[in-house]
């Protein structure tokens, strides 16, 4: 393509509301433009990268035998009523009414849609297992869209759904998808980790997130410095080691305590399904609400607000039997501990959890810390931030039972389909690549997803020789590579700066030495510059497009 005809509206200045590099650079390099908060147009360069990522995703999905289809973004509310999710999700689920005043949702995800399609069309075990996927626009009315495409309100997702007769078949498909995701993100040139994750409100047990490492990532990953253990911090298990001091249990007393901190207790109050929950933890540990949610086996829990706490009047020493009491493993070995009771603003000493706080059971309920032993027993834990670019779930029968999606097994018995679901944030992946692959001059696209492979620049568009050679190279290489020709009547400095900003892997500069048939090849990734004869370009380009 000739740049003089393309829509590539580069910006000199960094847009004020763009806080992170990828958001700034994708705007400055003319890859995208915002149309509303969290809503973007992919301009030609951005769209070319998007298509490259989609092609990689499609190839790896098709390789697993998954079948591509396309479902509507406008979803009848009736399906979301069947699973109860119409009322579970709040304003984040975008809704609309048609001209007959019927309710619809703008698709945030498609479990209901796909399950309704499958229950109508698939009824025998002979057709199982079956995996269906789409690459489609999703809508989630985020409260705070931010970081460009990283958290938008309209975004592109590849969402796949698999259907199985039994658990072990789902287990197999899960691994197949896990491996396919690994291929996708490797081919996209991302530095990522697959981490043990929480299934959120989706139910089902096993799930892994694919996290692209980035300091601006919203998620925190806990990984071992000596093994491949990695987990979203929400799920990283804590191994308890502290032993119990062998002291006599002293009588519970009110009073200040200025002894060492490691025996002081803290408690946090939650509500889950309208029940009150009090969770105890050592003062220097932090309660992990996702672990509490999973121990209680509820879809969501929330902290009690101060006024709710006041209203509940929770006195740890006199809780009524309705209240659920949990404690982190770290509390188990506290003897004669201390506790501050917010409600009465009193301090107590010689608090012995099992005797005084009606604690019956202990669980792993705290956040892991850097330096803790890795749960797999190998090495120590380190933290890194990540951008979640994919997630794979074992859903089980939550949706098929709610929607009566059943099949006849080989014995003629009716059973609910067992499901898995698998998502990749395609537009988020584009942003994650930009976040990982840039320098102070601009974007540095991996060859596999670059908008163009070669960027040919005629230094002086008024110079006949240079323009003639640049156009010849453009025609010649245009048959084998994706070539962008900067044929604009711009100063050389502007052309070079914008070439670095756009970030194609290889730049070919046609300058003064054009009449001697000499050009310059520059590798964007490492700045390597090679002056060469035109007839050497072929193998130089091939060599540098490989790595
Ligand atoms: O989307 C998933 C699970 C998987 C992920 C992979 C592809 C298929 N779905 C989880 N999730 C996240 N945010 C949501 C937001 C809204 Cl507003 C909603 F209505 C539903 C969901 C929702 O279900
Ligand atoms: Mg998350
Ligand atoms: Mg997720």
From TrEMBL:
Catalytic activity, as annotated: tRNA(Pro) + L-proline + ATP = L-prolyl-tRNA(Pro) + AMP + diphosphate
UniProt xrefs under InterPro entries: aa-tRNA-synt_IIb, aa-tRNA-synth_II, aa-tRNA-synth_II/BPL/LPL, Anticodon-bd, Anticodon-bd_dom_sf, Pro-tRNA-ligase_IIa, Pro-tRNA-synth_IIa_bac-type, Pro-tRNA-Synthase_IIa_type1
Keyword Protein biosynthesis on entry: yes
Gene Ontology molecular function: proline-tRNA ligase activity
E.C. number: 6.1.1.15
Compartments, as annotated in UniProt: Cytoplasm
Aminoacyl-transfer RNA synthetases class-II family profile domain location: 38-446
UniProt keyword terms in alphabetical order: Aminoacyl-tRNA synthetase, ATP-binding, Cytoplasm, Ligase, Nucleotide-binding, Protein biosynthesis
PROSITE patterns the record matches: AA_TRNA_LIGASE_II
Comment field on protein domains: Consists of three domains: the N-terminal catalytic domain, the editing domain and the C-terminal anticodon-binding domain.
Protein family membership: Belongs to the class-II aminoacyl-tRNA synthetase family. ProS type 1 subfamily.
Function: Catalyzes the attachment of proline to tRNA(Pro) in a two-step reaction: proline is first activated by ATP to form Pro-AMP and then transferred to the acceptor end of tRNA(Pro). As ProRS can inadvertently accommodate and process non-cognate amino acids such as alanine and cysteine, to avoid such errors it has two additional distinct editing activities against alanine. One activity is designated as 'pretransfer' editing and involves the tRNA(Pro)-independent hydrolysis of activated Ala-AMP.
Quaternary structure (record): Homodimer.
Designated name of the protein: Proline--tRNA ligase
Species of origin: Scopulibacillus cellulosilyticus
Name of the gene: proS
């Amino acid at each position: 393509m000739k740049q003089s005809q393309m829509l590539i509206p580069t910006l000199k200045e960094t847009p004020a509301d763009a806080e992170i590099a990828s958001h700034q650079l994708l705007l400055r390099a003319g890859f995208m433009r915002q149309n509303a908060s969290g809503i973007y147009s992919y301009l030609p360069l951005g769209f070319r990268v998007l298509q490259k990522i989609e092609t990689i995703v499609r190839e790896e999905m098709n390789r697993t035998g998954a079948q591509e289809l396309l479902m509507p973004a406008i979803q009848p509310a009736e399906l979301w009523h069947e699973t109860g999710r119409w009322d579970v999700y709040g304003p984040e689920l975008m809704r609309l009414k048609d001209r007959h005043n019927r309710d619809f949702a703008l698709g945030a995800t498609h479990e209901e849609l796909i399950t309704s399609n499958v229950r109508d069309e698939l009824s025998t075990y002979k057709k199982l297992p079956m995996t269906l996927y789409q690459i489609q626009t999703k809508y989630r009315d985020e409260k705070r869209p931010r970081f460009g495409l990283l958290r938008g309100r309209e975004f592109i997702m590849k969402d796949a759904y698999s259907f199985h007769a039994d658990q072990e078949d789902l287990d197999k498909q899960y691994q197949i998808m896990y491996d396919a995701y690994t291929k996708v993100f490797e081919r996209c040139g991302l530095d990522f980790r697959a981490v043990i994750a929480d299934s959120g409100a989706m139910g089902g047990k096993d799930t892994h997130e694919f996290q692209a490492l980035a300091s601006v990532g919203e998620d925190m990953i806990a990984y071992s410095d000596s093994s491949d253990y990695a987990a979203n911090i929400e799920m990283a298990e804590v191994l308890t080691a502290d032993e119990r001091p062998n002291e006599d249990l002293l009588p519970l007393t009110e009073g200040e305590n200025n002894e060492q901190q490691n025996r002081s207790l803290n408690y946090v109050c939650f509500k889950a399904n309208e029940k009150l929950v009090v969770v105890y933890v050592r003062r220097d540990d932090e309660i992990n609400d996702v672990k509490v949610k999973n121990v209680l086996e509820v879809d969501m829990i929330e902290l009690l607000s101060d006024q709710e706490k006041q209203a509940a009047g929770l006195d740890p020493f006199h809780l009524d039997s309705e209240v659920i009491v949990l404690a982190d493993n770290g509390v188990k070995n506290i003897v004669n501990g201390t506790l501050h009771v917010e409600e009465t603003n009193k301090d107590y000493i010689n608090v012995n959890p099992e005797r005084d706080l009606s604690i019956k059971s202990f669980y792993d309920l705290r956040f892991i810390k850097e330096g803790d032993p890795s749960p797999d027993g190998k090495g120590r834990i380190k933290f890194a931030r990540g951008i979640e670019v994919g997630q794979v779930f074992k859903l089980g029968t939550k949706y098929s039972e709610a929607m009566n999606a059943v099949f006849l097994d080989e014995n003629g018995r009716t059973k609910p389909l067992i499901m898995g679901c698998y998502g990749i944030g395609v537009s988020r992946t584009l942003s994650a690549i930009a976040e990982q692959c840039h320098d102070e001059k601009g974007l540095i696209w991996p060859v596999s997803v670059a908008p163009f492979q070669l960027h040919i620049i005629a230094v002086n568009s008024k110079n006949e020789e240079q323009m003639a050679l640049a156009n010849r190279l453009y025609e010649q290489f245009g048959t084998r590579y994706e070539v962008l020709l900067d044929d604009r009547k711009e100063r050389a400095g502007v052309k070079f700066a914008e070439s670095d900003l756009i970030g194609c892997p290889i730049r070919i500069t046609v300058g003064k030495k054009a009449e001697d048939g000499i050009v310059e090849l520059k590798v964007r990734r490492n700045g390597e510059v090679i002056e060469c004869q035109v007839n050497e370009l072929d193998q130089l380009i091939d060599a540098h497009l490989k790595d």
